[in-house]
Amino acid sequence: MPVTNYRTEQEFFVDMQRCIGCKACEMACSECETNGHESMIHVNYIDRAVTVQTTVQVCMHCDDPVCANVCPADAITKDEFGVVHTANTARCIGCSNCVMACPFGVPKKDEAYDLMMKCNMCYDRTSAGKKPMCATVCPTQALYYGTREEIAKMRPNSTPVNNFIFGKESVSTKVNIMMPKGSTSLIID
Amino acid sequence: MDMSLNKKALFIATGVSLLLISFVFYGSRKLQNFDPALIIYLFGTVFAFFGIVYRYTVWLQRPPTWMYFKRTFQFFFTGKIFLHVISFAKEFIQNIGFQKFIYPRGRSRWIGHFLMATGCTMAFCVTFPLTFGWINFTMNPATSINPSSVHMYEAHFFGFKMFEFALGSFVAFVIFKALYWCSWLVIAGVLIFMRRRLTNAGLVATQTFEGDLLPLILLLAIAVTGLGLSYGYEYMKGIAYDYMAVTHAITVIMFLIWIPFGKFFHIIQRPAQIGAHIYKKEGIKRGMAICPHTHKEFATQLHINDLKIVTKELGFDFTLEDGTSHLDLSPEGKRSRLAMAHLKARQQNGGNLFG
């Protein structure tokens, strides 16, 4: 990657209980230059039959990304800042392995492009020291980008968690999810 | 990154390279038709060939790649092989010949890529057989003796005469200047892509010099020096010929030996896309997977089953307590389950919103 002003002290914090489903993040995400103006963020109803609660999902930028591991074309890479980049357009063969293997359900396959695309934390902005588009527009701060000190001051009863248990698999990530104070992991079973 | 030598790949690459050398030897009729002026290009090509086969073999050994490779051949050679051949040929023309999938990503992007790809492919078709001594040209002796007759030129392939054409004819013009056309196509394509890479903010942020710009610069240098060679002796009395010959050779050799390691390897990888399409088509025939959360079809069951095998081979185990797998869920289902797990954690903590 070229020389950057990436600010390593800043992190991403997601709190889905705050998501109101306004989709401002989707609109903002489509402004990101690195996505080719396609929205990469996911906002969906959790279970529309019983609740109006929505959930928001950005790429969690795993420490050992399953998407990159299962890619048969070596199209997905992680950089020195821990950002897992979207598929290399020259290499991606559009097989959807990453789409189906990501435990967070993040990568999207664009059938017309025959290409996988995913959030790369607005690398055009974060590499220039700015915040990702979605986090700058979220009205409820379900998506927040800043320092650990800032989030600790704003959310005294929450703890950022970046360890997720999927059955027998433990996945650690660069992006945090806000959990009740004292939590160490989020168990998905 | 694993830097150790892969013995299987080394063995296969060495074997295939030796086979290529023997084809060069016999294809050029025991070097009778081999042009010694091209010896440096031959070394570069054999090295590139070795590197490509080595990397390809290493690449195939990765669990996800091997799974696709294995399945594609299983499907291709079972059932209606003839239909598979037709479908493969159709996909090859559309996706490799015309790179159809790039068009929706942007018209100028497709035009640029198509020009570069066509120019390079045509150049490969001309230069590789020439370098190997598989193609050579001779003067028809009967017409060359008589000064008043039309001089005929003969084209040979593997030493066999293919056809002949008159010197000075349109056919001669097209054939002798084949690499001119290739160069102009490549130059036009490279300029379109360079403009894109220098002005698109997203690309500027993510591209690297060696990964994205250098390949374009290299292609441009090859095409310009190649044209310079010919135009140099046509219009400049050969003044710059030596310089052009050396720089052209250097840039071409750099291009060749870099194919296995850099961006150009995507040329070799791209046909795998057709394999992925065959895999999907066959998977649909065998049945779709239904997400236990959304209750909708989302992928082929074959794909999900294979992914469970591949992820385990890679050291990931998404088996849940009830014996099912997290991979049985669709992407939307996974996102919802994550949110539900978050809600559960909140409920276990008193149930109130926390801040």
Automatic annotation (TrEMBL), chain A:
GO terms for molecular function: 4 iron, 4 sulfur cluster binding; metal ion binding. It holds the Pfam family Fer4_11. Keywords: 4Fe-4S, Electron transport, Iron, Iron-sulfur, Metal-binding, Repeat, Transport. Residues 10-29, 48-81, 82-112 form the 4Fe-4S ferredoxin-type domain. SUPFAM superfamilies: 4Fe-4S ferredoxins. It comes from the Bacteria. Coiled coil: none annotated. This is Fe-S-cluster-containing dehydrogenase component.
